[in-house]
Amino acid sequence: MAADAHAPTASEYIVHHLQHLQNIKQTSIVDFSVVNYDSVIVGLIVGGLALFALWLAARKATAGVPGRFQAAVELLVEMVDNQAKANIHNAESRKFIAPLALTVFVWIFAMNAMDMLPVDLLPVLWQGATGDSHAYLRVVPTADLSTTLGLSSAVLILCFWYSIKIKGAGGWAHELVTAPFGTSKNPVFALILGVVNLLMQIIEYVAKTVSHGMRLFGNMYAGELVFMLIALMGGAAAMSLSGVLLPVGHIIAGSIWAIFHILIITLQAFIFMMLTLIYLGQAHEAH
Description:
Elements: H1 2-5, H2 10-17, H3 37-59, H4 68-87, H5 91-113, H6 121-130, H7 145-178, H8 187-239, H9 246-284
């Protein structure tokens, strides 16, 4: 009983908060049988709320002077549409890709924004609901690598789809074995260059997909850790009689990082959206 009652150390606190609510315990780095329920559920909930907000803006849109909410949504839609036109020159493709880019930006921003909630708020509520003081719950889906790589993999599949749709299966296959180093009239050299080109194309696709997902994950994971460290600063203040200035430092540090983090979560959503448009734009181009 005494062991259960003691407060966790800083390392135990951080390790506990980095554990997911899973179907089974993960035993290896890559395990596709593991499902992080918290990332899936939170992602779906905030995605539904984001869709509701956009639907509400469309439903209440007027031709007259727009309100603040409508004006903000119109600016967002216009910004995404301009970026789509700059990267996707096929007007027919933009009918799907522009709304997709808007969805990507709003959804990722909403998932990133979960990091602005107090670190212990939802985990403590979940522990109280389950009656388990050690129940796990992470509330930032984009701080989960499976989420970000899942999103980037979906972009990769769309790149394949548009490469085939725009260039044809034969045209895309020809591009895979002739770009970036070209080919040769000599059959032997043509075979060698074809293999090298194909390997380079595979490496490029893998590198783009991994970096696309890792960039978002890395920034959000780091932000989550910083909020945990700030929370620990407040815990240290509560445990220390001499730490008179720690509560003040806790409030100042938390406020500064929260304000700065608003820029980070917005910027990361924008970067992910822009890379999505760029990669899909590249799928339309012939080499």
